[in-house]
Amino acid sequence: xxxxxxxxxxxxxxxxxxxxxxxxxxxxxxxxxxxxxxxxxxxxxxxxxxxxxxxxxxxxxxxxxxxxxxxxxxxxxxxxxxxxxxxxxxxxxxxxxxxxxxxxxxxxxxxxxxxxxxxxxxxxxxxxxxxxxxxxxxxxxxxxxxxxxxxxxxxxxxxxxxxxxxxxxxxxxxxxxxxxxxxxxxxxxxxxxxxxxxxxxxxxxxxxxxxxxxxxxxxxxxxxxxxxxxxxxxxxxxxxx
Length: 241
What we know:
Elements: H1 2-32, E1 34-45, E2 49-60, H2 63-83, E3 91-104, E4 112-127, H3 133-143, E5 147-154, H4 159-184, E6 188-199, E7 210-211, E8 228-240
Antiparallel strand pairs: 1-8, 2-4, 2-5, 3-4, 5-7, 6-8
Helix pairs in contact: 2-3
């Protein structure tokens, strides 16, 4: 009788282990069931500031002459920017260079003669009011700037655009996940994980580089700032119920 009872106990114990193992496997299978999707979102807005690279290049027989002439024009440019309401903190020198003007001997003997020197001074100007961009450009060229390398438009505070793009990306992810769940005949559960990347940056409409004769006074150019956008991509994993 004792051996029969012991055998029965072993059988019951084995069944209990099998039952627990089955429950654990079912739980693990439930936990592992998920749907992962990628959502895309974009938000656009009007630019509220602009940056322009403008400068002056001068040439003279000596470095001193070229530098002095360049500095005189730069001072006029600074005065013009001040009259246009540009704060000094929004003006930054981005390039200052000096190089010789060389002429090769036409006889082809390899000799090179220095015939003068060039001085180039370029400043980056931040314009807080996009409606003033054309007037500022005209003021720069009237003051003697003979090079404009480009205009870029931006947004001072990007938080609102980013928030809009995030909301759109999450909504897109939810729609994609629900569509997949319907096709699979299951229901979505809670969000298990989210990862985000800010992509695309802020497209900046550019005005191609241009050079102007110093003696030419320029009319106010027409500038179109267009629209800027920011894009967000999210990867979301949903549990399956």
